[in-house]
Design goal:
Layout (H helix, E strand, L loop, with lengths): L1 H38 L1 H37 L3 H28 L1 H8 L7 H15 L1 H16 L3 H25 L4 H19 L20 H36 L1 H17 L1 H20 L2 H28 L1 H7 L5 H16 L1 H16 L3 H23 L10 H16 L17 E7 L5 H13 L5 H21 L9 E8 L5 E7 L24 H10 L2 E7 L2 E7 L1
Antiparallel strand pairs: 1-2, 2-3, 3-5, 4-5
Length: about 575
């Protein structure tokens, strides 16, 4: 039964995450698709040349956005609401300031940026198109720096539907405006990037509804002075996965130079098609990783290691199934994919189709790496997340680039499956080595007890007996054993007696008790009833001959004896976290 709790929580996140990932994938390929149709291989080469700017932007807004949301989810899991709110506000403020710096760079230093990216005025039309695209992208940087992190925080603040819908709508508008501006009004590459900016702004407007919605949400705007040490910690956490964008920046620049010297704009255009296929082919893996992050971070904050691991297994299982189906579909239709992106001649389509198939051959390995990195980042095992990012984003990628550089243009793309498979193999071999282990002491599986209670099943006696045995096995004092047992009994009884079940459903309670190493016991209790907070029950008068449950009086005693207690309505479940 506890698997059903996890599945419902997972799919409440996975559905909107898939929607957002599809929207992002469509938006990512829209520029190349429309510009390729409009201007051919030179337009595709322009998108490839300017792609590193996105990579550098993403290092910061994904690093701080993901790192901040991991800290946000951990703090909410521990019941530290005011601290979680501060994390949101200081993160968004710092992101805005960095975005302004990038905007300043676009106003005054676009030429220098393009020189670094490998194109100069001597390249003619390629340089002209790249200048138009890069300048607008840099000047409008604050929009990107705010929207994506805002979306991630909202997903962690128990509003995954709005997060997914807002992000998807913004990206769909991006696609529609691409066709209108580039193909309809003939604005060229400038129209393509303006379509992206407008889509991001609309997405941000939709997401802002979260700030004025239900009281249960934690996120509220407030002026917060940034804590530099905290920001560095957040960025360090986020860089565990966003550092891949730095590596991609270096890699894209190197490959652009190699292919441009070997095949001219055709080689760069084929590479751009492969990059766009990666946005689509891996979308289910990224969606699974996005769904995993709030769950794993929350359970990590609760010290619920069993649920934490279960969330990883579910993300990996469903991500691999859905991702494999999509990758196989792309492999079958590789020629059609290349034609859609504007490759026209038989030679271009031949090279492109071979490259696409080679990339997809490593897609399953890439998906496993993506989900694993997301998990380790979410549970603050940053050394493992960094290792995965370093192997697949730089070390092995550059190594196999050097190895494959002497192969044919299509064979060159063998570097992708070799890199992803090699990364997974090496990580599995070394992941248990001491230097990769976290210094944080977390409870082992044998220090966790869990049980599911059904309202229609009279298993309260069995629960009490099991809890007493569990506490005794960790040398709990008689008083502590009593308080843990009473807490579990009173909370569960209050839910069964007072909570209202959803339509066509019965009340189920998933109880987990963790024996902390410092001698405390942490109780994590979830139920599937409508919103109900047992701590709001008022203690009433109890008659001398009343043998019924203590009700509000029992809850009052629990509140007096607990070291900490916290209630939250999260993913349509009532969630309680109590430290005894």
């Amino acid at each position: 039964m506890k698997n059903q709790f996890m599945k419902k929580m997972f799919w409440q996140l996975m559905g909107p995450s898939i929607l957002a990932a599809i929207g992002l994938a469509i938006a990512n390929i829209a520029d190349s698709l429309v510009v390729g149709i409009s201007t051919g291989s030179v337009g595709l080469a322009t998108i490839a040349i300017t792609a590193p700017i996105y990579m550098v932007n993403a290092v910061f807004y994904m690093g701080l956005g993901v790192g901040g949301s991991v800290e946000f989810a951990r703090l909410t899991g521990e019941g530290k609401i005011s601290e979680a709110r501060k994390i949101f506000n200081m993160t968004m403020l710092v992101l805005f300031c960095i975005g302004v710096i990038f905007s300043f760079t676009g106003v005054f230093f676009t030429k220098q940026v393009l020189w670094v990216l490998g194109t100069t005025p001597g390249d003619g039309k390629l340089y002209q198109l790249s200048y138009q695209y890069a300048r607008i992208l840099l000047v409008c940087a604050p929009v990107f720096f705010i929207n994506t992190p805002f979306c991630i925080f909202i997903r962690n603040d128990d509003n995954p539907k709005l997060s997914g819908i807002g992000f998807a709508i913004g990206n769909v508008v991006d696609v529609v405006l691409n066709f209108i501006l580039v193909l309809g009004i003939k604005t060229g590459v400038a129209g393509s990037i303006w379509a992206t900016v407008i889509g991001q702004m609309l997405s941000m407007l939709i997401l802002s509804v979260h700030l004025i919605s239900r009281e249960k949400h934690i996120i509220k705007l407030a002026l917060t002075v940034p804590d530099i040490k905290r920001i560095i910690k957040i960025l360090n956490s986020g860089l565990a996965t966003s550092s891949q964008y730095i590596m991609q920046f270096v890699f894209i620049m190197i490959v652009n130079h190699i292919l441009y010297n070997r095949q001219g704009s055709t080689g760069v255009a084929v590479f751009d098609v492969v990059l766009n296929v990666s946005y689509v082919g891996l979308l289910f893996f990224y969606a699974a990783g996005d769904s995993l992050q709030p769950l794993a971070s929350t359970f990590h904050g609760e010290r619920n290691i069993d649920a934490q691991k279960m969330s990883f297994r579910m993300s990996l299982f469903y991500g691999l199934i859905l991702g494999s189906i999509l990758l196989m579909t792309i492999i079958i239709g590789a020629e059609q994919v290349c034609g859609i992106f504007g490759l026209e001649s038989k030679e271009e389509i031949r090279l492109g189709a071979a490259a696409v198939r080679l990339y997809c051959a490593g897609g399953v390995f890439a998906g496993a790496n993506i989900i694993a990195a997301a998990y380790y980042q979410s549970v603050e095992e940053l050394k493992k997340a960094y290792l995965i990012s370093f192997l697949r984003g730089l070390a092995l990628l550059l190594y196999f680039t050097v190895i494959c550089i002497n192969l044919s243009t299509s064979g060159f793309f063998m570097l992708f499956p070799l890199t992803e498979a090699g990364c997974l193999i090496i990580f599995l071999l070394v992941r248990r080595m001491p230097f990769l282990q976290s210094s944080e002491q977390l409870p082992k599986d044998d220090r966790i007890y869990s049980m599911v209670l059904e309202k229609n099943e009279n298993n309260m006696g069995q629960l009490i007996e099991n809890i007493e045995a569990f506490c005794e096995s960790f040398n709990a004092t008689a008083k502590q054993n009593y308080y843990v047992t009473v807490t579990a009994e009173e909370i569960c009884s209050a839910i069964i007696d007072n909570a209202t079940a959803k339509e066509d459903d019965s009340i189920s309670i998933f109880l987990t008790i963790i024996a902390e190493y410092n001698g405390d016991f942490r109780l994590c209790i979830r139920d599937n009833a409508l919103a109900f907070n047992p701590f709001e029950l008022e203690a009433g008068k109890v008659e001398e001959d009343d043998d019924s449950e203590l009700g509000g009086l029992g809850i009052f005693i629990v509140k007096q004896k607990a070291k900490k207690f916290y209630y939250r309505r999260y993913l349509n479940f009532n969630t309680l976290n109590i430290l005894v």
